[in-house]
Amino acid sequence: MRPSRDAQLPVRWIFLSLFALCPAVFAQSGPGFATSATGGTASLSALSMKQNGAATTPSGMPRVFAPTLPRTTYTRYPWKTDIVATVFWIGEQPTANNPTPNHKSSWDVNWERNYGGYDDPDPANRDRDFTPKGFTPGLNPFYIALPYNDCLSYRSHKAEAERVIPWFKQSFVKPGRSVLRGTWVAIRFGNQVCYAQWEDCGPFVTDDWEYVFGNSRPKNTANAGAGIDISPAVRDYLGMPSGAKVDWRFVDVNEIPDGPWKNLGNNNHFVRIAELRAKRDQASAQTHLDELRRLRDQYFRSGSQ
Q1: What b/e readout covers 1-35, taking b as 16+ CB neighbours within 10 angstroms?
Q2: Cβ distance 179 to 171 under 8 Å?
Q3: CA dihedral 66, 69, 70, 72 (to 10 degrees)
Q4: What's the pTM?
């Protein structure tokens, strides 16, 4: 029995939808959309937000807006002003003035390998996208170090960490896993503001919580009392020399505007969220295609009866 003319109207819509989404759906065989990810989206999105204390929507995704500058009136985290900033880089070899090599960080023993190589600070060896020539970094090239480490070892935190770190309770996963690593900061030099992730500890000291989370000045006395280390990408974006004074503060993920700091890195929240959204959209498209195929098959079965 052939379906009536009225019954054919939704069927035409089904065919048009199938063809628009994937013409190959009518073929006997051929590629479709990739299979959906299983169970990763919610957990990774939650982890991204948990690590940084970001505000989220009911769907678990961050509320992102794009101001030209961070808030200059009330903010949850105040600016630290007139702080000497020195430049450091992944793969930096020890010197008399800096005895600690940077092939590993306070939280990553394979930092240079995970980054993808030596983050050459020489401007002649860097591309216009703020990355070293020759490879695409596997971690965010916009990184900084601050003089506090919340962990004593990979199994325990410092006694004061829970008390002094504002987001400790909401970010805590287990003893010895840092709640600081990957935190975002804004760095201001003149009228320029750059955003970067906290990925190492220094300069020189790793116990100065009174400065990092309080109102004290840096207790480090080396390099003119430097209180923050910045990567070559941060230096180049701000157009500043090593040893200049900057302002900096912590920022929530939802405060960060678009910029090159969002583009690269497996540790980058924005890269990970984009990947999760792509997987979610792919899964949604696959589900829709499956339903259209079911309706198509149902139509042909009913038409053959």
Answers
A1: eeeeeeeeeebeebbebbeebbeebeeeeeebbee
A2: yes
A3: -130
A4: 0.69
Query: Residue 187: helix, strand or coil by DSSP?
Result: strand
Could you tell me how far CA 102 lies from the centroid of its own chain? 21
Which pairing describes strands 192-201 and 143-146: parallel, antiparallel, or unpaired?
parallel
DSSP per-residue letters across 74-106:
S-SSPPEEEEEEEE--TTPPP-SS--S--SS-S
Angstrom CA distances, 242 to 85, 167, 196, 205, 229, stand at 6, 30, 16, 18, 9
Q: Would you say how long the chain is, in residues? A: 305
pLDDT of residue 295: 66
Digit-coded pLDDT (tens) for 165-221: 999 999 999 999 999 999 999 999 999 999 999 999 999 999 999 999 999 999 999
Alpha-carbon separation of residue 109 from 102, 117, 198, 288 (angstroms)? 10, 14, 16, 44
pLDDT digits (tens, 9 = 90+) for 50-80: 444 444 433 344 444 344 455 444 468 999 9
CA dihedral 281, 287, 288, 289 (to 10 degrees): 110
User: Residue 228: which residues within 8 A CB-CB, separation 6 or more?
Assistant: 83, 84, 85, 86, 144, 145, 146, 187, 203, 246, 248
**CA distance linking residue 169 with residue 7, whole number of Å:** 59
**65-263 architecture in CATH?**
Beta Barrel (2.40)
- For tokens 């006694």, what's the residue? 159
Quick: pLDDT tens for 153-170. Answer: 999 999 999 999 999 999
Span(s) in the chain for CATH 2.40.40.10: 65-263
- What is the average pLDDT across 22-36? 35
Query: Tokens 């794009």 map to which residue?
Result: 66
